[in-house]
Design goal:
By secondary structure, this protein is mainly alpha-helical. The strands form 2 sheets. The protein has a two-stranded antiparallel ribbon with strand order 1-2. A two-stranded antiparallel ribbon has the order 3-4.
């Protein structure tokens, strides 16, 4: 058993020495940084599924007590863009890791692209939610008092 553990430790040390202690670079980025980026992206993908399922599950439990279907539609609209926002956060972390190896022009453009992407996602959510907001406002308008201080709305027309 100790021999197996020693072999495992030697293998890990050899891999560590080959990957992390080399001067090999790919596109001016050290291999160790590339490995870290890949790990961040894999972790982001795992967390994206995990958090999306947790958040959507909690929202579904909260809305299960309501009688309308508007909340279920809203959850359906939010599910995919929420995953996109989590993925975008992972790309931002990757930029923080790789940023020291990029040119100043690249370091300026990448945050701009991430910001425009987040703005696009927010706009997409609003676009998809517009019919639901219209239904919600129509329901609120139907339940409001239609009188003014001078009389009813119908008498003013």
């Amino acid at each position: 058993m100790e021999n197996l553990q020693g072999t495992f430790n030697n293998t890990i040390n050899l891999i560590k020495a080959r990957i992390f202690d080399t001067d090999f670079k790919l596109a001016n980025i050290p291999v160790a940084t590339i490995v870290i980026v890949v790990l961040i992206l894999v972790l982001t993908q795992i967390l994206r599924g995990f958090f999306t399922s947790i958040i959507i599950d909690r929202l579904e439990r909260l809305t299960s007590r309501t009688k309308t279907t508007l909340d279920y539609e809203l959850i359906r609209i939010l599910k995919q863009p929420l995953g996109w926002l989590i993925w975008l956060a992972g790309l931002w972390v990757v930029h923080l890791v790789v940023g020291t190896h990029l040119t100043p022009a690249q370091n300026q453009k990448i945050p701009e692209i991430l910001f425009v992407s987040a703005l696009f996602i927010a706009t997409y959510i609003l676009y998809r939610a517009a019919p639901l907001l219209g239904e919600l406002l129509a329901g609120l308008a139907a339940n409001t008092d239609r009188t003014y201080a001078t009389g009813t709305v119908d008498s003013l027309i």
